[in-house]
Structures are given as C-alpha cells and as structure tokens.
Design brief:
Elements (H helix, E strand, L loop, with lengths): L1 H8 L6 H12 L20 H13 L5 H8 L3 H8 L1
Protein name: Transposase
Length: 85
C-alpha cells in the first residue's frame, strides 16, 4: 500500500509507519481522518475576557512582570507575551 501511495503522491505522501497505522485504524472500523488527541499542554485561545484580566492586572500594578501575569492567570508565557504586545 505504501509503495502505491508513494507512486501517486511522491515525497508528499505519508511515511510507511503512518500508512500502516491508518490502515489498521480503518480495518478496525474507524472512519475519522483526524489523529487522536495527544497528551500535553492544551492550546488556549486569546479571548476578550483574558485580555481584560491582563489589562486589569497591569493597571492595578504597573511593575507586574509577564511571568507573574502568566502564573496568576494560569496562561502560558507565550500567550501572555502575545496579549502584552
């Protein structure tokens, strides 16, 4: 199967291990094209409420650090940075 896909899709096709995994999933009855959710850090969407919370912290304490904001609100440093800039 991988050789046939490689002939059609060339370098843009799935690697052999992925082809084997997807084939196994379809044989088991899965019809989903998405991968299973992976463990790890959840992705957060920046909301207007989150921006308002950051702004309130900054207005309340002008010398607050981004690290303190990230710790207080439970958001990533990257998200904190994106909101601040």
């Amino acid at each position: 199967m991988h050789r046939r896909m490689k002939a059609v899709y060339g370098e843009y096709g799935l690697c052999c291990l992925n082809v084997v995994e997807w084939r196994k999933r379809f044989i088991e009855g899965s019809e989903l094209l998405e991968d299973d959710a992976q463990p790890g850090q959840a992705h957060h969407v920046i909301t207007t409420e989150m921006i308002a919370e950051v702004n309130a912290l900054v207005l309340d304490n002008r010398i607050i650090t981004m690290d303190e904001i990230h710790w207080l609100l439970g958001i990533s440093v990257g998200t904190t940075h994106n909101i601040m800039h």
